[in-house]
Amino acid sequence: MQYGSQCSTEADRPWRPQAERTSTAPMSHPETSSALRLMAVHAHPDDESSKGAATTAKYVDAGHEVMVVTCTGGEAGSILNPAMDRPEVLANMAAIRREEMAKAAEILGVQHRWLGFVDSGLPEGDPKPPLPEGCFALVDDEVATERLVRVIREFRPHVLVTYDENGGYPHPDHIKTHVISVKAFDAAGDPDRFPAAGEPWQPLKLYYTIGFTKARIQAFDEAIRARGEESPYTEWLANWPDDRPDMQERVTTRIECAQWFDRRDAALLAHATQIDPNSRWFAVPREVQAEIWPWEDYQLVRSLVDSPVPEDDLFAGISQRVAVG
C-alpha cells in the first residue's frame, strides 16, 4: 500500500498486550493443544489481507491457530479508495483503520495483536524528507524486537512468516518488519535474550511471503487479454525495471488455496480506506485466478526440521517433530 508521511501521538502510548487484542478468538494453551500455530508479522493493517490471506484462512479452517501481528497502526495511510475520500474519514484515520483491521481479522478467523508502533509513512520526493521522529522505522531494533519476542513467547508459533530483506517493496516499515522478525526468530528461543519477555520459545520455520512477481503479473495480464479485455497490468509490465530481481526464482513453497480467495478478497475489502473495489486488485475474476494461479508463494529461509523443498505445506516436517518432541 502507499502511505503518506503523517505520524500520530500514538508513539507515546505504552504497549499493553492484553489491551491490544482485536480478535475474540481464544488463546490456546500450547501444552494441551494439538493444533499447530502460525504467526504472520506485517507492517500495516491491510498487509495481512494482501499477502498470504488465503493461506491463513485455509489453515484456520483446517483447525490450526493463526495469529497476525501488525507492527504499526497505519496512521499515515492515505485514502486510496475514492469512495472513502471524505474529510471526516481522514480526520479519524487511526481509529477507522483499527476498525477495518478488526473486521478483516474476523473474516479470516485469525487472532490479532497490535505491536503498538507508529506508521513511518512513505517519504517521497527528491531529496526524500526525513522520517518522522518516533515512528516505527526509527525505533531501536532491540526495543522493537523485544516487543515481538514477547508475543512470540506468548503465542508460541511453530511457523513465522514475514517479508524478505527488501520488505516485499522498499517501504521503511516493511524493511523494519523484516529486520525485527528475523531477529525475533532467533531471540525468542534464547533464554539469555530478553529474559523478562516470557518463557523461551523457538519457532521451527521462517518464511518470506512472495507476492506480485513478474511471472504472476504476466500470467494475469495474458489471462485478461485472452478474454478480449484491456489489461491493467500491461503498463506495469512495460515499466518493470530490467535490474529488478525475479522473486519467483526464490519460491520454495506453494500453498494451494483458491478455495479461500473469496475470504481473502472479503478481508481486503474490509480495509475500505485502502482498497478500491474497482482497482486492479480485482481485475482478474476469481475463477480465472483459480485456474492460472491457484496458490500463494513463499520462500523457506530457515528450518529447524527436516523439510525438503519444494513444499506444499508451511507446516511440512513440523507434525513429526512435535509428535516426537
Automatic annotation (TrEMBL):
Q: Indicate yes or no for the key word Zinc.
A: yes
* Catalysed reaction, written as an equation: mycothiol S-conjugate + H2O = an N-acetyl-L-cysteine-S-conjugate + 1D-myo-inositol 2-amino-2-deoxy-alpha-D-glucopyranoside
- The UniProt annotation places Zn(2+) binding at 44, 47, 174
> Which GO terms fall under molecular function for this chain's record?
hydrolase activity, acting on carbon-nitrogen (but not peptide) bonds, in linear amides; zinc ion binding
- Report if keyword Translocase is assigned: no
Signal sequence interval, chain numbering:
none
Q: In its UniProt record, which GO terms are filed under biological process?
A: mycothiol metabolic process; mycothiol-dependent detoxification
- Read off the SUPFAM superfamilies from this record: LmbE-like
Question: What's the short name of a Pfam family annotated to this entry?
Answer: PIG-L
* Cofactor(s) required for function per UniProt: Zn(2+)
Bias regions of kind Basic and acidic residues — which residues?
Answer: 10-19
Q: Which domain of life does the protein's organism represent?
A: Bacteria
Q: How is the cofactor bound?
A: Binds 1 zinc ion per subunit.
Residue ranges, annotated region (Disordered): 1-31
Q: Which InterPro entries match?
A: GlcNAc_PI_deacetylase-related (IPR003737), LmbE-like_dom_sf (IPR024078), Mca (IPR017811)
Provide the alphabetized UniProt keywords.
Hydrolase, Metal-binding, Zinc
Q: What is its EC number?
A: 3.5.1.115
**Polar residues compositional bias: what residue ranges?**
20-31
Which family does the UniProt entry place this protein in? Belongs to the MshB deacetylase family. Mca subfamily.
Its assembly, as annotated, is:
Monomer.
Function description: A mycothiol (MSH, N-acetylcysteinyl-glucosaminyl-inositol) S-conjugate amidase, it recycles conjugated MSH to the N-acetyl cysteine conjugate (AcCys S-conjugate, a mercapturic acid) and the MSH precursor. Involved in MSH-dependent detoxification of a number of alkylating agents and antibiotics.
Name used for this protein in its record: Mycothiol S-conjugate amidase
This protein's species is Pseudonocardia thermophila
